[in-house]
Amino acid sequence: MNLTEKVCKLGYARLCIILMAAGPGLVVMLADTDAGSIVTAAQSGAVWGYKLLALQLILIPILYIVQELTLRLGLSTGKGHAELIRQHFGKFWAWFAVITLVISCIGALITELSGIVGVGNLFGISPHLSMALTIIFLILLVLTRSYNSVERIALACGAFELVYLVVAWQAHPSAHEILQGLKSVPIHNSNYLYFAAANIGAVIMPWMIFYQQSAVVDKGLSIHHLKAARIETALGAIITQVIMAAIIVTIAATLGKSHSGATLTTIEQISEAITPFLGDNVGRILFALGMLGASLIATIVVLLTAAWSIGEITGIRHSLQDHPKEAPWFYGVYFVVLVIGGAVVASSTHLINLNVAIEVMNALMLPIVLGFLFALAYKTLTPPYKLSGRYAIFVGAIVLITSVFGVAAGLFGIVDMLR
Which of 26, 86, 91, 324 is spaced 20 to 30 Å from 210 by Cα? Predict the structure, then answer.
């Protein structure tokens, strides 16, 4: 009997609800600070110092607003995101949304696995061995056929990301320089806009919306868990953005001061940038733990998101509770995507620029992803959970502004780079 079952058996109703609801929000938020996000934050700190730090703070409430809508949808309808799109907008738009999601998942998987390879390289482990060990671990994980087991292991992996808070502290950043960076926002610089778009895409990702809604359904939660799930999601939004800020601060306080404007090209370079200031062994180990934890938890989330969403849109069985013989396509999608991604990354190098570009791609997808989310929340929810009145206008404005800025910043940056 686990802790949640013991608490529920003892009759502590409120604590029981909180413990039962805990998990999906923290998992998806820790996965949000994935390898691609870490790389994007590191590159931002190296090129722009503290100037993109304010954006991380602004994104906290936006991230919460977006993910809170997925909670309302999942807990009130008991259906995943792809399934709701199919039900209310038809198969064409459902496939359109899922194809967008799969593209995002493939890009994310490349960044996660490249992060794992980069960690292996730090300790002399070949890419092929790193990928083989990762694939074996992730296959054994999903074969537990228990959402709760997968969730606990994912949280254990993601907890290692908190070491970046220690790394930022050890970098001894200047409070005065941080304040100056918060005040300085060169909005007319196209390169700055490109990185701003990358950071937005690194925080608000298509697969997060699909994952959290499917996760609360697969876990068996109901609308009674909404308040507890909201608290967990808000806490997760703060944690993930504090981690992103810590990475920017770390690189800005180290490489940003000694080699301002330097461009990073490999995972190893990010580690090497901070180890002279933190000590070779300590710096390498802390960086490796954070990157490995971020990469593993995000890989788990991305793979499950792809498998869940394809199952929802096709109507086939798609639960972790199902045996592989009962849900062959669900497990098949998980295994095939994992093996292909591992093979691609094991044979590739210099993935830093690709990681940043993938986050920009996520920003360009925001109108599609957030558009469907807002439309579903407005169309399918019923009182008292339906979007209405001033809050509906406020959420609509946030969705519109975030989408327009993400697309505009990304396009301006891309056009300038192509000149």
Answer: 324
